[in-house]
Amino acid sequence: MAVASPPAGERRVRPARADRGAVLVVVAGLPGSGKTTLLRRLSAERVPGMTGVDSEQVAARVRAAGVRAPYRLLRPAVHLWHRWRVLRAVAGSTPVVVLTDPWTGPRWRAAVLRAARRASRSVRVVLLEVSPGEAVRGQEARGRCISERRMERHAARWAALLAGPAGTGGGRGTADVLAVDRAAARRLTLADILAELPTVSGQVPQKVR
After folding, report:
1. What does R_g of the chain's alpha carbons equal in angstroms?
2. Whole-model pTM?
3. Which CATH architecture has domain 2-208?
4. Tens of pLDDT along 106-156?
5. 69: left (phi over 0), alpha (psi -120 to 50) or beta
6. Are 32 and 135 spatial neighbours (Cβ–Cβ below 8 Å)?
7. Is beta strand 96-101 parallel, antiparallel or unpaired with respect to 23-28?
């Protein structure tokens, strides 16, 4: 697992394209940490050759179809549909796929990384370093909260993820890793994420603030 971070305060301005082949960008963080917000902002750049995949897209389609059941009952179907979309996008021909995901499920994480390897995609992981308390406030602000038990499980797995090898627990998958707080995330562009970074193997991701 390769880990990289730009020097503090440095801004990289490059064309937002994958010069070395197809890329999977994973925006990872606790539920409510701002993953969807970051994806929306990256999508607003309207960069050709980039597609975003977020579970909220599926939830929005379900709501648009007139389904009025409580979300807790729809969640299993929404997640299954979302995961199918993720694997299809990763295996597809779009040069840059940006995925939002808690990244706390080891089996799902391994499945995504395996799909990326099969598609010859390099992987870049953006870790949104937001505390569980901040994430809960983010859930409240969006008007959709997960249960306290599920949040505790996510928080425990997230802490283990950050403490693991290279901070992503990706096993044999290879990734460049960038850890940012909320302030840095608000300044992040797709060109920043895709810019070529020097890599340092085996270290915990350095923080960019």
Report:
1. 16
2. 0.80
3. 3-Layer(aba) Sandwich (3.40)
4. 999 999 999 999 999 999 999 999 999 999 998 888 887 889 999 999 999
5. beta
6. yes
7. parallel
